[in-house]
Amino acid sequence: MTILAIETSCDETGAAVIKADGADTKVRLLSNVVATSLSLHAKTGGIIPEVAAREQVKYIIPVIEKALAVLKNPQKEIDAIAVTVGPGLIGSLLVGVETAKTIAYAWDKPIIPVNHLFGHIYANWIKTENDIEIEFPAVALIVSGGHTDLVLMNSHQEIKWLGGTRDDAAGEAFDKTGRLLNLSYPAGPEIEKLAKGVEKDVYRFPRPIIDSNDFDFSFSGLKTAVLREVQKQKVLSEENVKDICYSLQEAVFDVLLKKTFTAAIKYHAKSIVLGGGVAANQVLRGKFEQYTIDHLPSAKIFVPTKSLCTDNAAMIAAAAFFNDKKVRWQKISANPELYFD
Ligand code: KG4
Ligand code: ZN
Fold first, then answer.
1. For the chain: N or C, fewer Cβ within 10 A?
2. What pTM does this model have?
3. Fold that domain 132-304 belongs to in CATH
């Protein structure tokens, strides 16, 4: 089966082509094209939905054309079109959904609607060079700019939401702190860079609800804790900024580790799967690897390559293959509020 996937939930325009068949445990990536309007949003310190949607319109056709260029006869070779239907920004989502519907109508192909959050998880089911099979049960942690969710997967069909953030997402905590420290948007990568080399957790920011008896998260208090520190300093020295970045990372990652491994131990997970933009962070990846060795050596940890952590269409194609629910193009619509069932 060959799938063309389209992802336009936020500020990235993605199209990808994958190939996989019934017995395959991972999908083979034939092409993966991403255009981003991030530099425009950096200027405004955040995403302006109308601007993001307008950029989606500009990029969508060239991005799809480029992704399809790997096929000799796309119309004949494509079996289905996968598209992100939510969650996301309504204007951005509509561009991808309506384009997918148009292609499906013109080429007479079925559509597979995909939840963006499942996409982040399924970025791990794309073939890489040294491939290891992901065994169930798996505990998946989605850490992106908009979401922080823990999910239990007993199989591809049996996926259960365990908990999520009550307020800000992990990535949002980075981005909002970045604004307080005058860093560029999105701040995650720069915070990682600035924290490098710092060895002491000077500020010991709170670890919100780390010991609560559930799998929920809450990161909104962190920006207030950072703000308090920023207000205390007369001049924010380079060293202060670096120390704050390091302490923020430690606080957020401690909570993510504790909750994920509590779930993994409780549900006897054989695999721990990370996804989403924050999973691109090298420190986070290292901590999860070490924690697995120290606390749950029977499990294996999986993290997508960096380019597959942030928004892309390859992950949408993978999710579509393993949760293949083909529908006619008339049956789908964008749903910005889509979440887990
Ligand atoms: O998954 P993603 O591309 O978009 C959403 O679906 O939200 O995630 C973007 C988020 C941003 O908040 C960004 O600051 C964060 O991922 N991020 C990082 C890193 N790279 C991106 N956070 C921490 N460290 C990084 N290296
Ligand atoms: Zn995302």
1. C
2. 0.95
3. Nucleotidyltransferase; domain 5 (3.30.420)
